[in-house]
Specification:
With about 250 residues, this protein is of the alpha/beta class. About 45% of the residues lie in helices and about 15% in strands. The protein is built from seven helices and nine strands; from the N terminus they run βαβαβαβαβαββαβαβ. The chain binds NADP nicotinamide-adenine-dinucleotide phosphate.
Length: about 250
């Protein structure tokens, strides 16, 4: 690890850090010297990731965060600033994809996608933007999806939630000014636990099969996030799309 790798010493808060893309990102950034602050609802998962980081000589703290609750994001950002004195990067990665045909009226799933995928990102902005403005530096990284680039049956609400994230991220980038950086990371099919939240069993099985057949590892997205962070202060990576080669 070098002192000037663009990640070493940065305080990086990551939501959804107990599994999948968030976990892989936490492990990679901590390995490169980032001080990571891990948030999600299952604290036992966060504790396992934090222990792994500590065992490898890295620095990690964690807290229970439900991103659909504004207060939780406020406390999460406060945890970072009170523990480490600052926050350099907020990775708003927590998300769910309980996809299904609209005819099934799985309204609870629709609400979860709006509350977690969209409001979770907004609450992260509400919590971190004043901190970043005060510091005159800071980096938002939000997680989109290639479901914004190709809308297909069963994915209407999920795609809509990620299109909202895309619009919010681009609007934030335009308003951010010269001091802040704003990045949208747009993953294609990635091998994570994301399919487990699909409530329709047939669609869950199909999605899992597609993941098993062609998904890329979560570490591919972690490297994209690291790339955005490690750029010099005046360089803002606007969007990175990463797909498995097999994805059409
Ligand atoms: N896998 C893919 O193919 C793919 C493709 C494009 C985009 N994405 C996006 O990538 C992001 C990460 O997903 P993943 O694929 O890595 O799936 P994952 O392994 O299921 O990870 C999602 C994480 O979000 C957390 N989470 C869910 N609801 C939350 C809430 N209300 N508050 C706080 N944390 C919450 C989960 O932890 P808890 O349940 O413990 O809270 C979990 O750690 C999501 O935004 C997803 O939409 C994934």
């Amino acid at each position: 690890m070098t002192d000037n790798n663009g990640i070493n010493g940065k305080v990086i808060a990551i939501t959804g850090a107990g599994s999948g893309i968030g976990e892989a990102t936490a492990l990679l950034l901590a390995e490169r010297g980032g001080k990571v602050v891990l948030g999600a609802r299952r604290t036992e998962r966060l504790e396992a990731v934090a222990s792994q980081i500590a065992a490898a000589g890295g620095e990690a703290i964690f807290a229970r965060v439900d991103v659909s609750r504004r207060d939780d994001l406020e406390s999460f950002v406060s945890l970072a600033t009170t523990t480490f004195g600052r926050l350099d990067v907020l990775v708003s990665n927590a998300g769910v994809m309980p996809i299904s045909p609209l005819d099934e009226l799985r309204v609870n799933d629709w609400e979860a996608m709006i509350d977690i995928n969209v409001k979770g990102v907004l609450y992260g902005i509400a919590a971190a933007l004043p901190v970043f403005r005060e510091q005159k530096t800071g980096h938002f990284i939000n997680t989109g999806s290639t479901a914004t680039l190709r809308i297909v049956p069963t994915m209407a609400v999920y795609s809509a939630s990620k299109l909202a994230v895309k619009a919010i991220t681009e609007g934030l980038r335009q308003e951010a000014g010269a001091d802040l950086r704003v990045t949208l990371v747009t993953p294609g099919m990635t091998s994570t636990e994301g399919a487990s939240g699909v409530t329709n069993p047939d669609i869950r099985a199909n999605l899992q099969k597609t993941i098993d057949d062609m998904a890329m590892p979560a570490s591919a997205i972690a490297r994209a996030i690291a790339y955005a962070i490690e750029q010099p202060a005046g360089v803002d990576v606007g969007e990175i799309v990463v797909r498995p080669t097999a994805q059409g």
